[in-house]
Amino acid sequence: MKHSTSPTPSLAPSYASGTGSYYSRGTSPLPPPANHSRDCLSATSKSYKYLRRLLKFNQMDFEFALWQMIYLLIAPQKVYRNFNYRKQTKSQFARDDPAFLVLLLICVCVTSLGFAYVLGLSFWQSISFIFYVVFVDCIFAGCLVATFYWIVTNRYMRSSNLEPDIEWGYAFDVHLNAFFPPLMLLHFIQLFFYNWLISQTWFISRFIGNTFWLLAFCYYVYITFLGYNCIPHLKNTRLLLIPLPIVFLFYLMTMIIGWNVTVSFIMFYKYRLY
């Protein structure tokens, strides 16, 4: 029998469908990558290319990024099919096109302006508010969350140490995906109800405001789960859904004790500015 020294093209479908893997199923005669310095260099090179494209708007696919944003709201599971396709064609799960990040930051700035208007902030307070939301709430907090999931998934959820690591860039992409629906709920849709309804002391005000937060957290947890569940060599990804019942119990507690989470959130924003 004639033996090949490289993986055959037929291996790609089994890997993408989750029924096979290049390293753990014994379908490839090649050993797993062992040169860690090469992996780091590759990750650094990919990050450099990604950041370099941030200012090249003519090379970004904004139409596809907008499609992803819409489907993150109505059918988020469809978005991650493209990530699997990218892994097969470009050998990485993480986005190589910063169009989604650019559109997300634009949405953050626009919704923050609306939020600043509702809060009655001055011009410089509005600029400071946008700065906080973009660089602290979105990017800095996103880096912390992405690093947490990156460590957890690589250390505890890989089915084998021979499987490839989860890229940090992909973990950050998952955070950005999960961040968008809560942004729309809390920084945009909620604004239309705040002054005349949510800010009042009525039960219905507390119910609507806290329900917005419940939906936002559920969106974030579920989309995060989808992001890691679509990777074939990760196990026990359902554990990422554990926060859902905790969030629901917290929601019930806020309703019982009469705590309007939205009003507290608004007060926190004002305290951070003054």
What does this structure look like?
This protein is mainly α and 274 residues long. It has one domain (11-273). 69% of the residues lie in helices and 0% in strands. The protein is built from 11 helices and no strands. It is globular and about 55 Å long. 25% of the residues are buried. Residues 1-41 have low confidence and may be disordered.
Helix-strand blueprint:
Blueprint: H1 11-17, H2 36-52, H3 62-74, H4 79-90, H5 99-119, H6 123-157, H7 168-189, H8 191-198, H9 203-229, H10 243-257, H11 261-273
Helix pairs in contact: 5-6, 5-7, 6-7, 7-9, 9-10
Summary keywords:
single chain, 274 residues, mainly alpha, globular
Approximate helicity band:
55-70%
- What is the distance, rounded to the nearest whole angstrom, between the alpha carbons of the first and last residues? 77 Å
Work out the count of structural domains: 1
What would you call the structural class?
A: mainly alpha
Q: What oligomeric state do the depicted chains represent?
A: single chain
SS field, number of helical segments: 11
Radius of gyration: 22 Å
Largest sheet: none
Mean pLDDT: 82
Percent of residues in β-strands: under 5%
Q: Which regions contain 5 or more consecutive residues with pLDDT less than 50?
A: 1-41
Shape: globular
Could you state the order of secondary-structure elements as H and E? HHHHHHHHHHH
Q: What is the β-strand count?
A: 0
Quick structural overview:
The chain has 274 residues and is an all-alpha fold. The protein contains 11 helices and no strands.
